[in-house]
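Q: I have 378 residues here and want to know how they pack in 3D. Can you give me a structure?
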Amino acid sequence: MSARAAALLLAPAVPLVAGTPARATAAPVRDRASEALVTRLFPLLARLGAGALPEPLRRARAARVSACGDDAACVARVSRWEAAEIDSLAAAAAQRANALPALADDGAAAQLGRELRGVTAILDTYALGAAPRYPAIDGPEVAPDSAEAKARLHAAVALAARPQAGAFDPSVELALALLQTNDRTDAVRDDTSLDAPARRRARALDWTRYRYTALIVTGVGPEVPDMPLSPGGQYHVRLAAERYAVGDAALIIVSGGRAHPRSTRFTEAVEMRRALIERYGVPAEAIVLEAYARHTTTNLRDATRELAALGAPLDRPALIVCNPEQSRYIEGAAFAERNRRELGYLPGTIGPRRLPTEIEFRPARQSLRVDPIDPLDP
């Protein structure tokens, strides 16, 4: 095929009406990556769609963006959700509580507020130079005032400006585009299907046969580039294999995302699962992946979510398996305060330490709330 023929085939189709200038109009297209990300980070906003935003507020926000012209930083700044706007929408959501999907135990209004604050946190961090919650592993990889950062911001604004069918507000599209242009889309992963055998087995489990619903194996992320599993992680895997052999835990939940060192290509939970199977012969159907958590707080929160998804009774204890230092930290007051500060609640009740490397844990239902303040582990 000639280059000219190929160009003609690839050219967009336009109406050929005599005497009328041809004008191509962009049509909304589906972006599957964005759809998966918005469903994971902002499930309520994804369900509400474009019609949920009051028309006066929609016009006011659109006018603010329009006034920015080509100034991408201005677009990001005026796309933030101010407290008054969030309060107004949350109040309206509270009045329509029966008509909104119940995604959180504290109601749609609280969930809506969390998601809008999450949108704003992403804009602040990835467009406006605000320090992320965990600077060592979060945020853009380039300096906020660099040419590369400006290029990424302009690209994100351009992406968000394309027509999107049914989007709640362009700010959501901008937040998603900022994560994508900064390669921070770990909230959606393609390796979680590895534990399909364990999830199938869980559906038929008689949980009453076991003393513990699961062993929760926390991460100890490596700080050396290209290291799949840290020495501490290898120790945790050995502890888990030995404890699972006792036979009084239904499953092993390996918990750890792609966090340490910054921009690592390895997912800690995946590497722990691999070691359990290849080194210790633990059956694949016994291991559940929790591949998002990046801190001890979210290890326990996300393990609770996994237990709920598996159908495990949350009034039964699980057993945390980790090194003695981390175990002492988990049962201490500083860890409880960190949970209150970062999550807003305790992910569960810390029970007695059975061994220096084992401590009981009873999950709390507050952990099931979606909190997109941390876009890599919502």
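Q: Anything worth noting?
A: Residues 53 and 247 are 53 Å apart (CA to CA). The longest helix spans residues 108-126.
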